[in-house]
Design goal:
Elements (H helix, E strand, L loop, with lengths): L5 H16 L15 H12 L3 E3 L5 E3 L1 H31 L1
Antiparallel strand pairs: 1-2
């Protein structure tokens, strides 16, 4: 049984928390303290990527444009990796 990738899953859950709270602009920023270690790491990654922005007072909001860009980049990398594996398999099969 394949396990789901933990990092993207945790990041999606953190982003979902912000979307559910409506924290998508500085005016709607919320305090956020993740309780699970995986979500705490995801929170730090998203802050580092400027997907989660701060109002300077310990409250955060989700930059939806950057979030969509991050998700799109991840999909592109996955597709390129799958294509590379497919090409390698085809080359190996033709030998």
């Amino acid at each position: 049984m394949a396990l789901p990738p933990v990092r993207p899953l945790a990041e999606r859950k953190v982003a979902a928390d912000f979307l559910a709270a409506g924290a998508v602009s500085m005016a709607d920023a919320i305090p956020y303290a993740p309780t699970r270690p995986s979500r705490r790491r995801a929170f730090e990654r998203l802050k580092g990527a400027d997907v989660l922005r701060t109002d300077g007072h310990g409250r955060y909001w989700l930059d939806e444009e950057r979030w969509q860009g991050r998700r799109s980049d991840r999909r592109t990398k996955a597709i390129v990796a799958l294509l590379a594996v497919g090409v390698a398999a085809a080359v190996a099969a033709l030998r």
